[in-house]
Design a protein that fits this description.
Universal_stress_UspA, about 20% strand, 10 strands, UspA, Rossmann-like_a/b/a_fold, ten-stranded mixed sheet, 10 helices, single chain, about 300 residues, alpha/beta
Amino acid sequence: MENRSGAPVLAAVDETEGSLRALDWAADEALRRDRRLRIVYAFDWPLYHTVPAGIPDYSIEEFALRLVDHARDRAVERVPGLRVEAEFDVGDAAPILLLEAAEAELAVIGSRGRSRLGAALLGSTGMEMAATARCPVVVVPDREPKPAAGRIVVGLDGSPAAHSAAAWAFATAAGRGAALRAVTAHARFSSGRLGSLEVPARYAFDSAEEAAAREEARRLQSESLAGRREHYPQVAVEELVEAGHPARVLVDASENADLLVVGSRGRGGFTGMLLGSVSQSVLSHSAVPVAVLRAEKH
């Protein structure tokens, strides 16, 4: 993986409660990694709006400064002694944060609440970050965090992005002293959104096809794990191969985990798709933070 020695953990903040939960997670992770925490508030409000009528002393810059100062104070209060820097920048959020992510070890963003169906709402900036950032991106759900489980889950399907996810998941598990659950799904299923429950309840396999599909899933999983155990002998690994919609299998398998790690695009994605449909569904429905890894460029 790319060497980012000395790079910070980046926390993207805004005025939402979800971003504060993400900030807390980022501060804890910066401590675990012995990295400084860089807090950035990127906003385009002054580019498209005027000062609110009837508020002559209103200053958007003062508002932004108060926001990042509050974020810095919150991080330092949570992790005393943490090295923290906080800035705001005026402009379209996605390009600003992508430039910041290019110099970061890890970028952390929050979801923006939940829909009526219970799915997390990840804005366009978050989707662009997850799909194109040059560093791993962690999306933290806007919900009360669960007690630490000491387990990380990684989704594997043999794709280049899954190999990157496996490498990062092993390193992260080793750094945390956590166990690792490697999950691969197999099934022949019709299209449909996870949140609308349109995924099928039955799968069109006979016993021979089922056995062949499971064996192929195990092969792909083994390819993604090859060499990792030897490099990280201290990490306990559980291998899980399940029949079902990949997003559903991953979400269910990570319910009692601290973190879910996925590749940005799997083997079945359309050419040119930056963020695969499984990754998008996982980001919307996971109850735990999700790390998205892109395939390494050689």
